[in-house]
Each structure stands twice: as C-alpha cells, then as structure tokens.
C-alpha cells in the first residue's frame, strides 16, 4: 500500500509518520480488504491542527475524513476515528462488493469544464448565450453498480456522482435530494 503523509507548512517528523502508518495499518487490516493508497495531510489553522485523510480502495471507493484538534496527534486520532466509523458502517456492503468484483473498478476518461457563474456586462445581457469556459480538466468516471455508486457518494461526502452503470453499460447519476433521500438518473 502507498502512503503519502505530508504537511502544509508543517514539518511532519518520522515519529508522526510511523504512528500514522501503524494506526492506519491496524484499522485497514480490520475493515478494508484491498486498500491501494492513503493520503494524509496535516495543516495548521489558527491555533488548531487539521488532519485530512483520503483512502482509496481497489473497489473504487474513496473514504474521506477531516478533524481538528489543538494537538497534532489528537487531530490524527480524531480523523482516524471518523475513518474507522465510516469503514465499520460500510463493512458488510464492502465485503459483498469485494466478492462480486474480482477486478478493480474500471475508470473512463471524460472532459470536465468549469463555467463562469456571472456575466459582466453593462446592461446585464450576455453578448451570446454560450457560457464562458473558465477551466477544462480531465476527470475519471468509474464503472460501478448503482449500490456501489451510492456507497462511494456517501463515503466521499459528495452531493452528486456520475458513473458508468455496470449492468446497463450507460452513464448514470446518483445524487442526494433535499429531503435526504438518494436520487438516481438512468437515461
């Protein structure tokens, strides 16, 4: 497994890195079958330390956690507890998907655009109806079942997830509705 333990304008010492690796190994050995990489970023916000952790599993799931504390070790422990809780909640579902999916999730490339939100004109009418593209990026679309997509959206805390449906071989969308339920768009 690949570990990336860094600090934003903070020196992360060997003792902290060893502690992080040991704790994560113990937690992942308990819950996750095939983790691929973990990114842990420490930073400082005013008087508090912030720990952000992103875990990528070979099943395509991404689990994220973030915690604040006045001590750097306490920030990591709080973040680790949140990650542990997420993995514990989804342990049964993750195990079921490990059995169904012998290969890692296939990712497809797609273009992603950021559009300008406002048009700056004198009389508040745009010159054309075409939106202004601010940025263009490459993004990955995973090939998942609907259950896996919902699980990944919940683990990552995303409001919406675009995925390629394994069963129907088309692009689908799952999203969190305002009433708290999950919506699924299958064109």
Feature tags:
4-stranded mixed sheet, 4 helices, 2 domains, globular, SHC Adaptor Protein, alpha+beta, 5-stranded mixed sheet, Double Stranded RNA Binding Domain, 187 residues
The radius of gyration over CA amounts to 20 Å
Task: Report the CATH topology name of the largest domain.
Answer: Double Stranded RNA Binding Domain
Our measurement of the CA-to-CA distance between the termini, rounded to an integer number of angstroms, reads 38 Å
**Strand order across the largest sheet:** 5-6-7-8-9
**Tally of DSSP helical segments:** 4
DSSP strand (E) fraction? 35-45%
Structural class: alpha+beta
Please tell me the overall pLDDT: 80
Number of folding domains? 2
Helix content: 25-40%
Biggest β-sheet description: 5 strands, mixed
Q: Using the 3D structure, state the CATH architecture of the largest domain.
A: 2-Layer Sandwich
Q: In CATH, what is the class of the largest domain?
A: Alpha Beta
Uncertain segments are none
- For CATH, the homologous superfamily of the largest domain is named as Ribosome hibernation promotion factor-like
**What is the string of SSEs from the N terminus onward?**
EHEEEHHEEHEEE
Give the total of beta strands: 9
Function: Required for dimerization of active 70S ribosomes into 100S ribosomes in stationary phase; 100S ribosomes are translationally inactive and sometimes present during exponential growth.
Main location: cytoplasm
Subcellular location: Cytoplasm
Organism: Marivita lacus
